[in-house]
Amino acid sequence: MRPDSDKLQKAVARFSSLRILVLGDVMLDRFIWGTVKRISPEAPVPVVEVSGETVMLGGAGNVLRNLITLGARADLCGVVGKDGSAVRIKELVRALKADVLGLTEDPERPSTVKTRVIAHSQQLVRIDQENRAPLSRALTERLWEYLEKALPAADAVIVSDYAKGVVSAPLMARLSGAYSGIISVDPKVENLSFFRGATVITPNHLEAAAGAGVSLDEPDYVERAGRLLLARLGAQAVLITQGEQGMSLFCGETKIHIPTTAQQVYDVTGAGDTVIGVLTLGLAAGLSLEEAAWLANRAAGIVVGEVGTSAISYQTLWDSLERP
What we know:
Blueprint lengths: L4 H9 L5 E6 L1 E14 L6 E14 H10 L3 E8 L3 H12 L7 E3 L6 E8 L2 E8 L7 H14 L5 E5 L8 H10 L3 E5 L13 E2 L3 H8 L8 H13 L3 E5 L5 E5 L2 E5 L12 H14 L4 H15 L10 H7 L4
Parallel strand pairs: 1-4, 1-8, 2-6, 4-5, 8-9, 9-10, 10-11
Antiparallel strand pairs: 2-3, 6-7, 11-12, 12-13
Helix pairs in contact: 2-8, 4-5, 6-7, 8-9
């Protein structure tokens, strides 16, 4: 059932009083836009005639962008290289009126950049520049020094894990030991064991099945995966996103399915960042897990209707709550 609209709007109105700390893999998302009119004579591939290019924050950076466009204050902690992409990342963070003190430079690795080539509203190819090796002990210590100073002011912590080396078991152990508030995690399968005891974990249905060791051929694989992950990780809740099928929330003995509100799905890029951002803000604003999940689902339904990594604005989310 849909939660009370007045309660949801009061929670959204409180977003501006909240401060969220984002820890994770910071990226630069680059989109090359164009059209395809012919196939290359050199190989059976389309020739893209470029019409434009867009650069924006991705990964943990896109979580930051979602939080700030929703009216909250946010701090970002992660690692960049010492290169031109790092300069651009910092420019984009500053443009959001956020500081870059939590971005640690590592001259031994490139900044993570994902380049997507899009023609006729379809992604043709993605090119990744990255180093997935774990951080050195010295770099991890520098991240912790920043986190330790930022935690007292945080109303919640979001961990945005893309398995690029920033999030580690030792770092998560220190975080969970030092912070007793809301910790929301968007995990990668290989790192699931790092997040025991988190408030809520938000894998997609494929990640959940892989992490729980459940076959996708089982008709109830989402429910089995959700219950197994909840038990194994000792989290308060597991929220499994399922694209066009909506979301399923597992909390204690309760399972709640929330159908999608998307009218049409164009691009799911960045939708997970919107989900965890809105979910965490909702919880920090006093909503229940079910209410916050419903709100996150409404926000995701808006974002997937746009092409390219997207962030939802405060006004757009507010207006959506006045509709059925």
